[in-house]
UniProtKB/TrEMBL annotation, chains A, B:
Organism: Rubellimicrobium mesophilum DSM 19309
Stored Pfam families: LacI (PF00356), Peripla_BP_3 (PF13377)
InterPro entries linked to this entry: HTH_LacI, LacI/GalR-like_sensor, Lambda_DNA-bd_dom_sf, Peripla_BP_I
Protein name (record): Transcriptional regulator
HTH lacI-type domain mapped to chain residues: 7-62
Alphabetized CDD domains for the sequence: PBP1_LacI-like
UniProt KW keywords: DNA-binding, Transcription, Transcription regulation
One GO MF term: transcription cis-regulatory region binding
Residues of the signal peptide: none
Keyword DNA-binding: yes
Length: 352, 352
DNA sequence: GCGGAAAGTTGAATCGGTTCAAAATATGAT
DNA sequence: ATCATATTTTGAACCGATTCAACTTTCCGC
């Protein structure tokens, strides 16, 4: 039942009466081989059932696996469950596919097991989906393979990282609302504790998540340009997974001067807010405008479709795959811009 | 900047004054090496910055890549978009992870490109997500690596395939409803044309999708047991992605003897039906019960949560990964049972 | 018919390890 | 001490290809 015995290039060469080198050329640089010989070798290969040079041999010789590893400090299911991961991975997969490269998923959720996967995966380099844990970076450094850190939280200057311009993006989001005429805002912030409850600016500045800080700074920058002070804009803590959004909203809507626009630090939260708003009979965008952050696929499907700033998934994918495969690692932290996608949840505020 | 020069096992052995064989043992079978020597080699390795034996060398020698390829005749994004694929892949990923094996995703969507990926992926074998296209099987056979066909549609006896018991599952679903007291049914069928519209049994038997035929047979078998004839149960064609479910429902609800139970050939369709039913003000399960098929994660989240027959994702994953990695290919088509998951969309029919 | 260039082919080295029979060394019993 | 046995270590073969310098053959023009 087992494959009798894999025939190898040498067998073919022998059977065809040529040197192994020539046989190799038949498959890799056929133009170097005389047609007659080429055909003969091919014929023999066919007869013997030789499927072409095995990638294994090639790998060893060339050193290139032609595959990149994607690692996260989460269970593997994370890659298929999280919207951000799915979206990015789709692009990464496509980019790799176009280049004929493979992708290998590796999880490092289980403490000790961690080192193993990263240290033994057969890849040319890694994409690290960080999120604060520098442990991932450390382990990967030990392996000695090139890697790119994605959404790395610490700002160590010497680790190659590709990141997004959180500051510019949220500033853009706020400016969009400002341009529409909004003057009263509320922010739905993540990474600021479980919520619900208003979080003072100092506390926001003190969070250990850089991206949260930057997003807040971006909102404030735009608002300040328009003459709106930080304190005028309440930041409410909600959970990363959308928990407590309803509660936060109740607080926000109860204010005497109800805001006309909502800035959410993630699409997931914005989407949750949309649902909560509908449940409370508040019409979007007529009564209140909402802007998200991330540009997950679901954002285009909501009712109404969500206005948001979209991460440059494709570019992140292209840049990081190229970094690994073309040996073109970013020197430090490289920052990519997001784009504002205006959809149905933003409109001018009702006058009065 | 580039890694000075990768030090290899031989360098370490040399520097430590032992043979390469001993050095190899230090890393792979340390118990064979005297403690003193072992520590010395380890120390030298550390000093030199040797990260342990490179997987590349090991691969060539052992022949095992320790990774399995997952291929579909769809763009790579399919793996992250389709609920079934995501669910199964999550399990596959987990099973592989537990065994320290990697997974590589390969798409064969682009016609000619097809051969390349499958033929050059660095894996020990493939999981083929078929769906009628035997082309995938053919190409993979040419590569000569072990493979398992998942949801293969043709029933060629000699290709190793792992499948689910469609017949038993739908029979179970129908029996559940029957046991609750239902007597009037309608079936939402896929793979029977675009719909909407009732499809006669002969036509259902003639569809080229075996699984659709089997699912219908399962429903009929249970119904017949209970003395309900095939013709008494309308099968309505809807689209695979849930298209036309609303239209089909309108037809079904318009019947003079409105059915009290709905059998859907996929969760996606059932979920869509739930939405359409709600939009039409028909209460589930009070006025009508609904049973799905597949057990996708979303089925647990719907309101009310969907009663369905769940595919044995974990077992499919385990069985197929083991088939590849343990060289334990199914001889032909191997069939796994599904389980009925009773949730909130089924209840006894209102009497009268 | 000859020299030189072009085209085609060969053979050996190499990639980075693992494996295993055989050799060397240590241990224990007598 | 001595021999048998157990523990370590060695060295060379091997895994399946690619690469390239060197060698052979073919082709051309004169």
């Amino acid at each position: 039942m087992a494959e009798a015995k894999m025939i190898k290039l040498r067998d073919v060469a022998e059977a065809a009466g040529v040197s192994q080198g020539t046989a190799s050329n038949v498959f890799n640089r056929p133009e170097l081989v005389r047609e007659e010989v080429r055909e003969r070798v091919r014929e023999v290969a066919r007869t013997l059932g030789y499927a072409g040079p095995s990638p294994k041999g090639r790998l060893l010789r060339s050193g290139k696996v032609n595959a990149i590893g994607i690692a996260a400090a989460e269970p593997l299911s994370y890659f298929f469950a999280d919207p951000w991961a799915r979206r990015l991975l789709t692009e990464v997969a496509e980019v790799c596919d176009a280049r004929g490269a493979g992708i290998a998923l590796v999880s490092v959720a289980g403490g000790k097991h961690l080192a193993w996967s990263i240290e033994s995966a057969l890849v040319d380099g890694f994409l690290l989906r960080c999120g604060g844990r520098e442990l991932l970076v450390e382990v990967t450094q030990r392996r000695g393979l090139p890697f790119v850190a994605l959404s790395l939280d610490t700002s160590e200057p010497d680790v190659p990282a590709i990141d997004i311009d959180d500051f510019g993006a949220t500033r853009m989001a706020a400016r969009h609302l400002l341009a529409l005429g909004h003057r009263r805002f509320a922010i739905l912030g993540i990474g600021l504790g479980p919520g619900p409850g208003r979080v003072p600016p100092e506390e926001v500045r003190a969070t250990r998540f850089v991206n949260v800080r930057e997003r807040a700074r971006g909102y404030w920058a735009a608002l300040t340009e328009a003459g709106i002070a930080e304190d005028m804009v309440p930041i409410h803590a909600v959970q990363n997974d959308g928990g407590n959004v309803g509660a936060a909203l109740d607080l926000i809507l109860a204010a005497e001067e109800r805001p006309t626009a909502l800035l959410a630090m993630s699409d997931l939260v914005a989407l949750e807010a949309l649902k909560a708003l509908e449940a409370r009979g508040v019409r979007v965008p007529e009564e209140i405008s909402v802007v998200g952050f991330d540009g997950v696929p679901e954002a285009a499907e909501s009712i109404p479709p969500l206005t948001t700033v979209e991460q440059p998934y494709r570019r992140i994918a292209e840049r990081s795959v190229s970094a690994i495969l073309d040996d073109d690692l970013p020197a430090g932290r490289e920052i990519l811009p997001l784009t504002l996608v205006v959809r149905g949840t933003t409109a001018p505020p009702v006058s009065g």
